[in-house]
Amino acid sequence: MTTPILQVRDLRVSYGGVAAVKGVDLSVAAAERVCVIGANGAGKSSLLRALVGLEPLAGGSVIWRGERIDHLPAFERARRGISLVPEGRGVFPRLTVQENIRIGGHARRGRSMAADIERVYSLMPRLAERRLQLAGTLSGGEQQMLAIGRAMIGAPDLLLLDEPSMGLAPMMVQTIFEVIAGIASAGVTILLVEQNARLALRSTTRAWVLDGGRVMLAGSSAELADDPRVRTAYLGD
């Protein structure tokens, strides 16, 4: 692997003294597509939230482009090029599609918002068609697109996605992952947390298996997809 843009060392997260993430190490290179899989409660969402500064660390470090950033607030990490699409989408239902997207520009880094809004619409034409529609009236899949579009308006170098397929019909899941592939092909680094392990491994090149807050397995996505332990526990084989 080339020099990583993101390194996580001995990362720990606790809630009220209960450890959720227990010493995770991982690294991600520029333009990689990587994933973290695991069961509910494995610590996957806590890991992502800690990376973007939404959860305090109980220990460890987050290093971005060679600089420790775990002391920085979330908005400063966003300014450095790290964006999160949260589980549950979190759109503002009483605002329009375009207003939701513009909110994502609060941590922009000197780029033209108009140009990036059009870039989002080119990636997801359905959002362009609904730009004046209230977000609360969108389907679940359209709201997921909107959450991705809002994260992309900050022109991130690293896009973290937390369970993007959750609650969506199979056809819409395929559409969402086509959108993610399009973003990756434009050079954006992808770190994906996804309960649909088969889809996650098929869509990435490297993976980690998180269990009980610890990394239990790591390797290429193809290797893990063939690992009997992963096939039994996560692929239903």
Molecular structure report:
With 237 residues, the chain is an alpha/beta fold. It has a single domain, classed as P-loop containing nucleotide triphosphate hydrolases (Rossmann fold). 35% of the residues lie in helices and 27% in strands. It has helices at residues 44-51, 74-79, 97-103, 113-123, 125-129, 140-152, 170-185, 197-202, 221-226, 228-233; strands spanning 4-15, 18-29, 33-37, 59-64, 67-68, 82-85, 158-162, 189-193, 206-211, 214-220. The strands form two sheets. The protein has a six-stranded mixed beta sheet with strand order 6-7-8-3-9-10, with helices on both faces. Strands 2-1-4-5 form a four-stranded antiparallel beta sheet, with helices on one face. A hairpin with a 2-residue loop joins β4 (59-64) and β5 (67-68). The chain is globular and about 45 Å long.
Topology:
Elements: E1 4-15, E2 18-29, E3 33-37, H1 44-51, E4 59-64, E5 67-68, H2 74-79, E6 82-85, H3 97-103, H4 113-123, H5 125-129, H6 140-152, E7 158-162, H7 170-185, E8 189-193, H8 197-202, E9 206-211, E10 214-220, H9 221-226, H10 228-233
Parallel strand pairs: 3-8, 3-9, 6-7, 7-8
Antiparallel strand pairs: 1-2, 1-4, 4-5, 9-10
